[in-house]
């Protein structure tokens, strides 16, 4: 079985940068025992009340941001879809009692392609795009991921793209090396302990138990945190978690890679 991963997509500029974090993204496929058949991917930038499963013959690239260099708007990531895996994901979610629908019109947003172009620059692995619903409880989100766990047995790589500390109010985008806020580190430290111990009960109550959760995951920005919960649930059968990378830019924007499940 392939592991599942949560990967922070950072700011859109990450797509054209070279740094320690992009190098970690470049090397991430080397952690896998074999090349995935397909990628099933939750993006924080696709919110829906009903769980959506996206499938197309070829996904258009969505440039869902503004005020960045023209180079970013010229990037294309021509990933193909995987209808068989999309239909399998749809069936698994239906059987788990999750309200779900297929989507055949939406492309890949920057939560998808900023990460994927570093991991698989040739866009040679088919993608199934999944929406997120921040209005669900952590327990409900975890169960959606758990329902998709059988896909890992079919060499499907399940990814979640978002951010564990993601609050524009505390970011200094003008200086990439600005001093890191201690509260951001404390939140990440709590999260590392909680995930490594596979303490789903504490995770479900992170808003009251985690230090500085109101800053790390503001009420208006929970969609960036929930992909972590989905992909953790996808490894419920193994319950092993390892933080492969953690760095912080712009004072508080965390770049984290979490692996759930083993690479055997």
TrEMBL record:
Where are its TM segments located?
none
Keyword set includes Oxidoreductase:
yes
Pfam families, A to Z? LigB
What keywords tag this UniProt record?
Dioxygenase, Metal-binding, Oxidoreductase, Zinc
List, in alphabetical order, the Gene Ontology terms for molecular function in this entry. ferrous iron binding; oxidoreductase activity, acting on single donors with incorporation of molecular oxygen, incorporation of two atoms of oxygen; zinc ion binding
- Which PANTHER family does the record cross-reference, listed alphabetically? 4,5-DOPA DIOXYGENASE EXTRADIOL-LIKE PROTEIN
Q: Tell me the protein's name.
A: Dioxygenase
Q: Which organism is it from?
A: Brevibacillus fortis
């Amino acid at each position: 079985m392939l592991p599942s991963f949560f990967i922070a997509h950072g700011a859109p500029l990450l797509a054209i940068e070279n740094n320690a974090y992009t190098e970690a993204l470049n090397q991430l496929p080397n952690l896998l025992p074999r090349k995935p058949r397909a990628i099933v991917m939750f993006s924080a930038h696709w919110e829906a009340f009903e769980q959506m499963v996206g499938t197309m013959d070829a996904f258009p690239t969505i440039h869902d941001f503004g005020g960045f260099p023209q180079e970013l708007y010229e990037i294309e990531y021509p990933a193909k879809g995987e209808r068989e895996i999309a239909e399998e994901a749809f069936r698994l979610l239906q059987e788990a009692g999750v309200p779900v629908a297929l989507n055949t019109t939406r492309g890949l947003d920057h939560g998808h392609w900023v990460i994927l172009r570093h991991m698989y620059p040739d866009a040679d692995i088919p993608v199934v795009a999944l929406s997120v619903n921040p209005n669900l409880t952590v327990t409900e989100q975890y169960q959606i991921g758990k329902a998709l766990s059988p896909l890992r047995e079919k060499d499907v790589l399940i990814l979640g793209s978002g951010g564990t500390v993601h609050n524009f109010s505390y970011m200094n985008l003008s200086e990439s090396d600005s001093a890191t806020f201690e509260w951001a580190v404390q939140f990440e430290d709590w999260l590392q302990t909680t995930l490594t111990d596979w303490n789903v009960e504490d995770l479900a109550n992170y808003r009251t138990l985690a230090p500085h959760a109101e800053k790390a995951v503001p009420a208006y920005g929970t969609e960036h945190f929930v992909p972590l919960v989905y992909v953790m649930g996808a490894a419920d059968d193994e319950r092993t978690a390892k933080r492969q990378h953690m760095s912080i830019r712009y004072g508080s924007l965390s770049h984290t890679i979490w692996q759930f499940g083993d690479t055997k």
